[in-house]
Specification:
Layout (H helix, E strand, L loop, with lengths): L6 H12 L7 E8 L2 E8 L5 H12 L10 H8 L5 E4 L2 H9 L4 E4 L5 E4 L29 H9 L7 E8 L5 E8 L5 H12 L10 H8 L12 E3 L2 H9 L3 E5 L5 E4 L3 H5 L3 H4 L2 H30 L21 H21 L2 H21 L5 H13 L6 H38 L18 H8 L15
Antiparallel strand pairs: 1-2, 2-4, 3-5, 4-5, 6-7, 7-9, 8-10, 9-10
């Protein structure tokens, strides 16, 4: 429906759709502006009351003979606010109103004035719990989209920075911001992402970024390696934009989706760049070594335990010395699931009980489970290392991908011995080698296709390039 010049007709339609007599938070106020009736709609809790009060005081002073015939002239003369728009489609108006934007209808005008003086309940931009750093900024994304875009804008003061907004979801109309650097971004990938977002037919993004990721890239669900990188740090998102990547922000989500992302992008962390090149290189290489140890440590140990003759003398200490009551494969699998159970319990445990329950769980599951004969101390040791190593990188998705592949290799090793280990290793490497980013490029570039120059950048943290200013020129 188009906005009519008759205020009564507009109010009747808005009352039928919004049901303000039932929805207590939908508020409307009939006022007089220059001798004409007007109606102001807003959502309680989403509006700056002091701003509305000042606008209404300004409307009182408007004289009847000074009222312009054109709605555009009225907005210029008597709407003293920065973010003012005019809409003719009532559906667009209702969507903006439910997003928190106050809307005003004036009798005689076939336009609805939208006054973006909304405010959302929001928490502080404190350091995220997951993406912590030893050195660097301590701010993080929050659930309010405008705050998140401002955190990136604060770091990139370049007119080529672009932030486009779209709405997704037939019911939710969730705001999505696409951030990129004009001139550096892959234009083909940008067009592909915009096209997929514009063609999305989904009722609501109930799971925020995860729902959007599944809609953007619905293929190859059987490959566990993540296709997207998520970060709650605005400095990481800003650096990715400057590198030519695309950052997608979803309203009500405190994480940024960075794409395209390869395995090297996901392994990287902000600490690599907040320390000198030597320290950053050490942190990066350590993380990569731990990446492979997390995947292969327990399967290799199980393989050697099944073939004791393969163990050299200098590694004889890794053999199980105590009597084995439960098969090693079952011990490893039970601990794999038990660790996930403890992780879920830690998430749902009240913070005041976290410390005492952690001590009790450590004593019971560590000391007594070994004494009872269920587990051997060597099994507990290697699984403890794998568990801790899984937190050496920030990506939850990558941690679970390694877990799924590790369990597969363990099972194949148990049933097929050395052949099973070889098959499991081949499947794991194939999941990396034949995987593709959302841009259709190799997931392990610069290994495939090989580029020595780019590989050095991925493995070693080089100094940032710079040029000294000479004579006013860079």
């Amino acid at each position: 429906m188009k906005i009519s010049t008759q205020l009564d007709a507009n109010m009747q339609y808005f009352s039928q759709v919004l049901q303000p007599d039932i929805n207590f938070d939908v508020v409307y106020r009939v006022i007089s502006v220059g001798g004409r009736n007007a109606c102001l709609y807003f959502i309680d809790g989403f509006t700056k009351d002091d701003t509305l009060l000042r606008l209404m005081q300004a409307f009182v002073s408007v004289k009847a003979d000074a009222m312009p015939q054109d709605a555009h002239e009225f907005s210029k003369l008597y709407l003293p606010y920065g973010e003012v728009g005019m809409e003719t489609d009532s559906d667009v108006v209702i969507t903006q109103l439910l997003a928190g934007v106050p809307c005003m209808l004036v009798d005689g005008y076939d336009r609805c004035f939208t006054i973006d003086c909304r405010t959302y309940p929001a928490r502080g931009v404190g350091e995220p719990e997951k993406d912590k750093v030893l050195r660097g900024s301590r701010d993080g994304f929050v659930e309010t989209l405008v705050f998140n875009t401002a955190l990136i804008r604060r770091r990139i003061r370049d007119p080529r920075m672009r932030m486009e907004i779209m709405g997704v979801g037939e019911s939710s109309h969730t705001d999505i911001a696409i951030c990129y650097m004009d001139g550096r971004v892959d234009t083909d990938l940008l067009s592909k992402i915009k096209g997929r977002l514009s063609r999305l037919h989904v009722d609501a993004l109930t799971m925020n970024q995860e729902s959007l990721a599944e809609c953007i890239y619905p293929h190859k669900w059987y490959n566990p390696f993540p296709k997207f990188r998520f970060s709650e740090r605005p400095d990481t998102a800003a650096a990715s934009v400057l590198e030519g990547n695309i950052v997608i922000l979803v309203d009500n989500s405190p994480a940024a989706m960075i794409l395209p992302s390869s395995i090297f992008d996901i392994i990287e962390e902000a600490d690599d760049y907040y320390f000198p090149p030597m320290t950053g290189t050490y942190l990066r290489l350590s993380r990569m070594v731990i990446f492979f140890l997390t995947l292969f440590l327990t399967p290799i140990w199980l393989l050697l335990m099944q073939n004791p003759g393969w163990i050299p003398d200098w590694l004889s200490f890794i053999q199980v010395t105590d009597e084995i009551h439960v098969a090693l494969i079952f011990q490893l699998l039970i601990l794999e699931f038990a660790i996930d159970g403890l992780r879920l319990a830690a998430v749902n445990t009240p913070s005041m009980l976290t410390t005492p329950l952690s001590v009790i769980a450590g004593i019971v599951l560590g000391e007594y489970s070994v004494k009872s004969g269920w587990f051997n101390s060597e099994t507990m040791l290697y699984m403890a290392f794998v568990t801790i190593a899984g937190y050496s990188q920030t990506s939850f998705e990558l941690g679970f991908a390694l877990k799924f592949l590790r369990v597969m290799i363990l099972l194949l090793t148990h049933f097929l011995n050395a052949w099973g280990f070889a098959i499991g290793t081949a499947i794991s490497l194939s999941a990396l080698i034949f995987n593709k980013t959302i841009a259709g490029k190799s997931y392990i570039y610069p290994l495939i296709p090989f580029s020595l120059k780019e590989l050095k950048k991925r493995l070693f943290r080089n100094r940032l390039p710079y040029m000294e200013k000479t004579g006013g020129q860079q």
